[in-house]
Amino acid sequence: MGATRTESDSLGAREVPAEAYYGIQTLRAVENFPVSGLTASHHLRRAYALVKLACARTNVALGVLDARRGRAIEQAAEELAGGRFADQFVVDVFQAGAGTSYHMNVNEVLANRALEILGEPRGNYESVSPNDHVNRGQSTNDTFPTAAQVATLFAFAELVPAVRVLSESLRKKGREFAELPKAGRTHLKDAMPVTLGAEFHGYATALEHLLELLPPIERGLAEVPLGGSAVGSGINSSPGYRTRSVAELARLSALPITVARDPFETMQSRWALGAASGWLRSLAQELVRIANDLRLLSSGPATGFDEIHLPEIQPGSSIMPGKVNPSAAECLDQVAFHVIGADLATSLAVQAGQLEINVMMPLATFEVLFSAKLLTNYLPVFAHTCVDGIVPNAPALERYLLESTALATILTPRFGYPKVAELIHESARTGTPVRTLLVERGLLSAVEVEQVLGKAALLALTKPVA
Known about the structure:
Layout: E1 4-9, E2 12-17, H1 24-32, H2 42-61, H3 67-81, H4 100-117, H5 130-134, H6 140-176, E3 181-186, E4 189-195, H7 196-212, H8 214-221, E5 223-224, H9 241-253, E6 258-259, H10 265-268, H11 271-297, E7 308-309, H12 327-351, H13 361-385, E8 391-392, H14 394-403, H15 412-415, H16 417-430, H17 434-440, H18 446-453, H19 455-461
Parallel strand pairs: 5-6
Antiparallel strand pairs: 1-2, 3-4, 7-8
Helix pairs in contact: 1-4, 2-3, 2-6, 2-9, 3-4, 6-7, 6-13, 7-11, 8-11, 11-12, 11-13, 12-13, 18-19
């Protein structure tokens, strides 16, 4: 170890790296929880910086924090919110309950930077204390969930445009393929015709519906427990602190942050994070369905559907020359599987609260923010590397369409269910197309078969009936 400084807390003294902005409690957390090597999201750092900035300004305005210290803490918080000191946040995402370790990491970095601004040595906490000054009127219990919810709102503000990129790509393909009739399938068996465009429009609509479900969840996230201190009562804070600090946080974040309607409920319950995670899970489930449909529709070429061709973005085998896999869709599946698994972890964390606090907040916060990051990063990539380059295999679409025995369903009003079922079974048994059987049995002329089961007639059937 290089140069150090000595810091003390209620458990004793320790040597902290002299150049570090973090302090003794962060050091203990790093030693106690060497779990994953993962550190918290930049959204959480920014959100916590804005929380601390709002609280410092409020405490100065209320006269419970002197202007000299207050200005230094404010500058430090502004710098943190702007992206500085990322390397100083070294606490693992798996840590002690409630997020106290991470919270003290924030407090110590801000205190030591404030000391530096004031021309004093790091670790001189009598002058600027992580607890008494940076954390004035606050607790982990109210600041960590507030920062977590604000960070989630920041993350969703990035994720929503990413979802829209994919939705718009799918919608564009829906328009491009609107006049391409194809065999429909239910239970993976032949069914009535649809268009390839209708399938892609359906994918886009599913994502748009999910986006419509998000605003109520965001309103829940915007209702924060800041000012509740340890249990919701606001102990050790000054009159007016809760309202003013929340209003300042709303201004700084440019988010519709509001004071909790029930300060005790919002300390006890982390339902808003659970709802955010549930929404991510629903999104992931739809993405799996879409990705797997694209994999199925592009399967083959000789032994699968081969109805569409996905862009060839990389070789698919180390042993089979020329093999190209649906790699982008496979990646999307894996991303979505992770999000679905993360939701289970979040659900367990959200229900694990007792009485006045949920101590599993760090896990729920990490899972929600990490899931949102994965989706934000990959959905636009998937849209550009996969969806935008999809082309139809028109001969395969037409062949399956015209050979589908399910088309005989169109004849049911004319010949009745039993007769049509008989034709379908005979076709399956003999391999003779239903179209041919109709002519051979004298049920329809060749011209009538074309009028009823021709490509133009089938395209007309794909239009929804009002």
